[in-house]
Design brief:
451 residues, mainly alpha, Amino acid/polyamine transporter I, 20 helices, 0% strand, binds tryptophan
Length: 451
């Protein structure tokens, strides 16, 4: 007997659930370091343009595919067009690449939370604290393992419902706390240089890499091109306003990322100067700069601890839904019990993640295509696989299933204002853009071009 598919209660319920999964380390940790590295204002501008064009097109397509078919990615493409079943399968590979390294960063967050709770603000603010920590062989792996166990425990016990509820309360608190810290940061002497760098686009810093980085970030942050939004769409009621929901999710996700950057980038100017080296910190940016901000604040220890609790929470809601995705795929394919699947996937994450973590220490000589391990997996998923999945999705819907199927689904209850624009994006602009990006990503990785 077929059981009725659960649905979200309405538009707000849907938007919150999707935003809870979308808002995570991508917004708080990844976006600020990319913005710092790729020229500040120009990166933001490119990101915003991509979000309202490419991001909008892809998200509305994925959610509509899910709601139309009532299935998650693997089955949904199969149902729409047999020949495109593999696109769903390909999308399913992505979370298996992302989850291990996502949990490594999650482990760093736990470590910093404990550091702040135990009152070691001074140590955490020291220049070499973070670098020394991730280079150790055992300690980061232990924090990472704790984080994975935490995530897996929730997935096994199945308290996601409670997590969803909690995130509707905690996410707004996170936004308020970020606003407070932002306010503090941008009023420090010297911060205005950073605010300018962050907000005013410098067109001379523009290059194809800016677009590549912004697009990878867009996919990552909005959980696109990996079947997640298809699954979410399959839980959406027919009378929920699809187009409006997509706009709201995008707005919320982008707002959190923007504020996180506004908190971190000016701080780089205040505490480390706006030197290229300080801005180029990459994945370590949040962990190096923010502790310095907290140390200089009154009550910084408490504010820092509160901040890392909320970051941990945002990260957990995302990694839970990532692990959940992996587990449900394994269950569907291999017909294992949930518990067995969760344990085995968790072991896989532990092994691959531990290797990624060691990539900052004993294994730092291991380079793939010139990239460290974390950067390599990040590149593989965000710059290669996700553009491929997105491209195939556009081709499948644009030329085989036809955009009308999506437009009809969107128009069930509300007019689709951008219909013409959407069809143009889906059939022409998005595929061209995705092909160019792919060629560029591969050329860069192979060292055929230098940037
Ligand atoms: N979007 C999440 C973030 O910004 C990360 C993420 C990517 C994700 N894919 C996902 C989360 C799938 C949940 C499910 O951090």
């Amino acid at each position: 007997m077929e059981t009725k598919r659960d649905t979200f209660s309405g538009k707000l319920g849907f938007v919150f659930a999707a935003a809870g999964s979308a808002v995570g380390l991508g917004n708080l940790w990844r976006f600020p370091y990319l913005a710092a590295k790729y020229g500040g204002g120009i990166f933001i501008l490119v990101y915003l343009i991509l979000a309202v064009t490419l991001g909008f097109t892809l998200m509305i397509t994925e959610i509509a595919i899910g709601r139309k078919t009532g299935l998650s990615a693997a089955g949904a493409f199969q149902k729409l067009d047999k020949r495109f079943g593999f696109v769903g399968a390909l999308g399913c590979v992505v979370p298996f690449i992302i989850t291990p390294y996502y949990c490594v960063i999650g482990g760093w967050v736990v470590k910093y939370l404990v550091t702040f709770i135990t009152g070691q603000v001074g140590q955490a603010a020291a220049d070499s604290y973070f670098g020394d920590f991730i280079a150790k062989p055992a300690e980061p792996v232990i924090w990472f393992a704790i984080y994975v166990i935490l995530t897996a425990a929730v997935v096994i016990i199945g308290v996601q419902k409670g997590i969803e509820k909690a995130s509707t309360i905690l996410m707004p608190i996170l936004v308020v706390l970020i606003l407070v810290i932002c306010g503090f940061c941008v009023t420090r002497p010297g911060a205005m240089e950073g605010v300018k760098y962050y907000l005013l686009p410098d067109f001379s810093a523009f290059s194809a890499t800016t677009i590549l980085a912004a697009m990878g970030q867009l996919f990552y942050s909005m959980s696109l091109a990996m079947g997640i939004m298809i699954t979410y769409g399959s839980y959406m009621k027919k009378d929920t306003d699809l187009r409006g929901s997509v706009r709201q999710i995008e707005l919320f996700d982008t707002l959190v990322a923007f504020l996180a950057g506004l908190m971190i980038v000016p701080s780089v100017f205040v505490f480390s100067g706006g030197s290229e080296e300080a801005l180029n910190k990459g994945p370590s940016l949040m962990f190096v700069t923010l502790p310095k901000v907290f140390e200089s604040m009154k009550l910084g220890g408490i504010i820092g601890a509160a901040f890392f609790i909320l970051v941990l929470f945002a990260a957990l809601t995302s990694s839970i839904s990532l692990l959940e995705t992996n587990v449900s795929m394994v269950c569907d394919k291999l017909h294992w019990s949930r518990k067995k699947a969760t344990v085995i996937v968790a072991v896989y994450i532990l092994v691959l993640g531990a290797i990624v973590s060691l990539g900052f220490g004993p294994l730092d000589f291991v380079k793939i295509l010139g990239l460290g391990l974390l950067d390599f997996f990040d590149f593989l998923s965000n710059s290669v696989l996700m553009p491929i999945v997105a491209l195939l999705t556009c081709i499948c819907i644009g030329y085989f299933v036809k955009p009308k199927a999506i437009c009809d689904e969107v128009e069930i209850n509300k007019p689709f204002k951008e219909k013409k624009f959407y069809i143009f994006m889906l059939k022409y602009a998005a595929p061209v853009c995705l092909v160019l990006i792919l060629i560029f990503a591969v050329s860069e990785a192979m060292g055929w071009i230098k940037v």
